[in-house]
């Protein structure tokens, strides 16, 4: 694609607000490329491979995990940012980091941990992603965390309560002022939505939990499927599904680029500060937004609430709650590094430990703590 100068409203790397601990500037790469590289080399990033997106990791080899989901978000985000002459590398860094704080077992794990943490300030995976990059990764001599730029950290923190915002300092400010983050962060957020809506259709069909016939009633799916069948009348099976989904993704990405470009032209932000004060400028057209909502509702009712998914979720919730309660009752069961931290804030140290677990590690740890079978480890 064409190489154009960055838009004036882009969060250009040379204008970064910088890092919490000052460092010598990177050589041969930009500040955001350095952020991206640090994220890819982190332990939390590698763990994404074994964390649930919708299907528990061991259900099948072909389903998305948090890792492949994050890669898809990064790929979509880069394309969109490039077409709008915005900072691709910043969008990529945010996309790769956006789910680092996810618990094992997807949203059910997060709900269970939040429930356990209610008396101790709650648990929110988005806030936890920031905690991972600010504190929990321990690899650098001079600081805890990855010491990422303000802009990447701001993008990771998609939402947060006003109470938490007050404690977060610089990245919390925009919630108190009711402002938006950079356009690059707004892109990563919507790329996330495009990625999961489409890959959940794909995984849902692959798993057999939803059927093509059900999707025939969903406007956006029906429209693109008809295009495929018109062009290739004898197409069936996986090829039909893939050709339909790739057209849906193309429509969504193209619509997002065009309608965001129109909004940016209309508001003419000259700087990132103008972007922060403006209404959201990265947005779908209203017709496409409605179609996306219809698809989202379909997935909610038919896939996320499918009894087989609900069973996995319920099991995941129980594992997380059991682990939390066991450690809370007997902190001596925690590994030494977390025991040391439990001295400061026991519940938070336990939440950090449990949230960091992959699905299979959580299951193994549960077996270690609860199995009474003498042959169990
Ligand atoms: Mg995501």
Question: How would you describe this protein?
Answer:
This protein is mainly α. It folds into two domains: 27-309, Hypothetical protein af1432, CATH 1.10.3210.10; 314-370, no CATH class. The protein contains 19 helices and no strands. Magnesium ion (MG) is lined by residues 69, 98-99, 192.
What's the helix and strand layout?
Blueprint: H1 31-40, H2 43-47, H3 66-83, H4 88-97, H5 106-117, H6 125-136, H7 150-156, H8 162-168, H9 173-176, H10 183-207, H11 212-215, H12 219-231, H13 237-267, H14 272-277, H15 286-304, H16 307-329, H17 336-342, H18 346-356, H19 359-370
Helix pairs in contact: 1-4, 3-4, 3-10, 3-13, 4-7, 4-10, 5-16, 5-18, 7-10, 10-13, 10-15, 12-13, 16-18, 16-19, 17-18
The structure holds magnesium ion (MG).
Keywords for this entry:
Hypothetical protein af1432, 19 helices, 377 residues, globular, single chain, 63% helix, binds magnesium ion, mainly alpha
CATH topology of the largest domain: Hypothetical protein af1432
Q: How helical, in percent, are the residues?
A: 55-70%
Outline, from the CA principal axes? globular
| CATH architecture annotation of the largest domain | Orthogonal Bundle
Low-confidence stretches: none
Bound small molecules, deduplicated: magnesium ion
Helix and strand sequence? HHHHHHHHHHHHHHHHHHH
Task: Indicate the structural class.
Answer: mainly alpha
Mean pLDDT across every amino acid position: 94
Total helical segments: 19
The number of distinct β-strands equals 0
Full CATH superfamily name of the largest domain: Hypothetical protein af1432
CATH class designation of the largest domain:
Mainly Alpha
As for the number of domains, it is: 2
Alpha-carbon Rg, integer: 22 Å
Proportion of beta-strand residues = under 5%
**Amino-to-carboxy terminus distance:** 54 Å
């Amino acid at each position: 694609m064409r190489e154009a100068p960055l838009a004036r409203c882009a969060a250009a790397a040379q204008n970064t607000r910088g890092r919490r601990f000052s460092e010598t500037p990177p050589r041969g790469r930009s500040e955001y490329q350095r952020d991206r590289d640090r994220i890819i080399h982190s332990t939390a990033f590698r763990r994404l491979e074994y964390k649930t997106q919708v299907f528990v990791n061991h259900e099948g080899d072909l389903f998305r995990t948090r890792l492949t989901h994050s890669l898809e978000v990064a790929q979509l985000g880069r394309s969109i940012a490039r077409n709008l002459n915005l900072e691709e590398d910043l969008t990529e860094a945010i996309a790769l980091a956006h789910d680092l704080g996810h618990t094992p077992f997807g949203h059910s794990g997060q709900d269970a941990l939040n429930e356990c943490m209610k008396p101790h300030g709650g648990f929110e995976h988005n806030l936890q992603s920031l905690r991972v990059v600010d504190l929990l990764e321990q690899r650098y001599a001079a600081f805890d965390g990855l010491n990422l730029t303000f802009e990447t950290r701001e993008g990771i923190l998609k939402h947060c309560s006003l109470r938490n915002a007050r404690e977060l300092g610089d990245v919390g400010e925009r919630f108190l002022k009711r402002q938006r983050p950079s356009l690059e962060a707004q892109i990563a957020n919507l790329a996330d939505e495009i990625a999961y809506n489409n890959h959940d259709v794909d995984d849902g069909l692959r798993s057999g939990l939803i059927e093509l016939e059900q999707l025939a009633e969903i406007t956006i799916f029906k429209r693109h499927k008809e295009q495929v069948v018109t062009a290739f009348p004898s197409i069936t099976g996986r090829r039909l599904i893939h050709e339909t989904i790739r057209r849906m993704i193309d429509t969504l990405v193209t619509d997002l680029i065009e309608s965001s470009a129109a909004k940016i032209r209309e508001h003419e932000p000259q700087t990132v500060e103008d972007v922060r004060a403006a209404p959201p400028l990265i947005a779908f057209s209203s017709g496409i937004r409605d179609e996306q909502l219809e698809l989202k509702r379909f997935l909610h009712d038919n896939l996320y609430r499918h009894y087989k998914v609900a069973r996995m979720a319920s099991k995941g919730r129980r594992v997380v709650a059991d682990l939390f309660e066991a450690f809370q009752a007997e902190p001596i069961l925690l590994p030494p590094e977390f025991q040391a931290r439990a001295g400061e804030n026991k519940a938070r140290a336990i939440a950090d430990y449990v949230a960091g677990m992959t699905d299979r590690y959580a299951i193994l740890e549960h077996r270690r703590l609860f199995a009474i079978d003498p042959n169990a480890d």
